[in-house]
Amino acid sequence: MKNASDPAGSSPPAQAGEIFPETMPCGMSESGGGGGPMIMINVSHGSSHHEVHLPAQSTFGDIKKLLVQKTGLEPEEQRLFFRGIEKNDREHLHHEGVKNKSKILLLEGTASKERKLEETRKHNEICKASEAIAGIRVEVDKLSDRVAALELAISGGNKASEKEFVVLTELLMSQLLKLDGIEAEGDSKLQRKAEVRRVQNLVDTLDSLKARNSNPFSDNAVTVTTQWETFESGMESSNAPSPTSSSTKITQDWERFD
Predict the structure, then answer these.
(1) How far, CA to CA in Å, does 238 sit from each of 17, 70, 241, 242?
(2) Strand 48-55 vs strand 38-45: parallel, antiparallel, or unpaired?
């Protein structure tokens, strides 16, 4: 006889130890299908140790997927060893004797090591190039100050020696050769390009200053011409007697003399 408080068609109470399909881990059902019971695996990777929790019927490939976030290695960069033997991604844990608290060794693949070595090499080259460019930049700063001082002297009407131009030009070209010999990539390549342009501009400035130093009046040629034109124009516009009036006056004087 059913209890009046029980709804019609209700299931009988569960027996002790009975597990319903919806409460079994990872979709495990009464028939034993699905992923099987959850197990914990200890994974050693160098000096690091990681715990991985997954169904017992998972594959070694499933372990690799879980290790991506823990190790930073992609699945194709991982090599898993159990009992000294490397395991294939498709091999199932329970078939290979992997149980709860079993230990698995993770080694990094050769391709991954080569990739990291290449990345390290590039990083070191970029740092080396940046340091070299920074050293050249300091020297170019000093040369730039000397060029600026030379320009100020010439603009002030002073004359510089030819040797000063030769020495500064040679020093700048020496820095340009150093820049050309630097193997640069990424940001360091842009830094080198900017410094090369800077040195070239300083050399151009020296050439211009050398021309001004050789002919200090070359910049004033137009101004002098304009002043002479103004002077001649002023003479023409002065109150000097015109040729006609002079001629008339002379004639009148002669007539008066007669």
Answers:
(1) 130, 99, 9, 10
(2) antiparallel
